[in-house]
Amino acid sequence: MGTPDGRRLAMKKKILEIGSGCAAGGIACVLGGGASLVYLTDIPDAVSLLEQTITLNRGAYEGNSLRSRALTMGKSIDESGHAWARDAEFDAILFCDIMYSDMMVKLTTETLNRIVPYVEGEKKTEIWICFVDRSCDGDPVPLQALKEAGFDCVRKRNLREYPCMKGILNQDEYYYLEDVDIWLWELQRTGPGRVRDIR
Ligand SMILES: C[S@@+](CC[C@H](N)C(=O)[O-])C[C@H]1O[C@@H](n2cnc3c(N)ncnc32)[C@H](O)[C@@H]1O
Fold first, then answer.
1. I need a labelling partner for 195 at 20 to 30 A (CA). Which of 146, 151, 156, 171 fits?
2. How far is the CA of 121 from the centre of ligand 1 (A)?
3. Residue 164 within any structural domain of the chain
4. pTM here?
5. Per-residue pLDDT for the chain (199 aa), expressed as one digit of tens each?
6. Domain contains 118
7. Strands 182-189 and 126-132: what pairing?
8. Which atom of ligand 1 is nearest to the CA of 75?
9. Which of 45, 64, 42 is nearest to 55 (CA)?
10. What is the Cα–Cα distance from 155 to 86, expressed in whole angstroms?
11. Which of 50, 98, 131, 182 for a ligand 1 pocket mutation test, highest count of atoms within 8 Å of Cβ?
């Protein structure tokens, strides 16, 4: 995000991160990318950790540009925070390492269908997804599901190429990532899709 490409992507944008966890992705959008506002979200039990992360980083960013909130994928629309996210009209929605199992792929597509409803002729919200491609051939599983859900997927860049990632990936602990590419994909809704709520 601190690269010219990253800044072009995030500068002055209002971004929603889902499943923030340690929140590295969302924080990078503000600190490196110059996003004007990032909502870090996760399941309710994790929100106090998000708050601590925001407090620890205060001083490194301006004003109130990092905020936290509960948003749970897989809950009913009233309990989940999805209606709030849809009405808040974010410029971009960020998922980092969320689509790691079949269930999480289903929850992600369901959540996107609720938060970014298909409106004819409208292509407003960008969706950025970082994931490790664990499939053997053909389109990675998360992308097959997202295409079915009515999203156009464009492969933007291999995060492995960035110097900051080399430092991380060269560590012994990450030996298992040696042959794995880490891609950033950009998605836009192009149709109503065939994926429905799973509950
Ligand atoms: C593999 S971690 C990724 C965390 C972070 N985005 C990162 O890249 O380090 C998965 C995250 O998804 C969150 N998560 C799991 N189930 C979820 C759900 N149903 N709704 C929202 N977040 C969920 C977890 O709490 C966790 O923070």
1. 156
2. 32
3. yes
4. 0.87
5. 877 878 888 999 999 999 999 999 999 999 999 999 999 999 999 999 999 999 999 888 878 899 999 999 998 877 788 999 999 989 999 999 898 888 998 899 889 888 987 777 666 788 888 877 666 566 677 888 888 888 888 887 777 777 777 777 788 888 877 777 777 788 877 777 665 554 4
6. yes
7. antiparallel
8. 19
9. 64
10. 25
11. 98
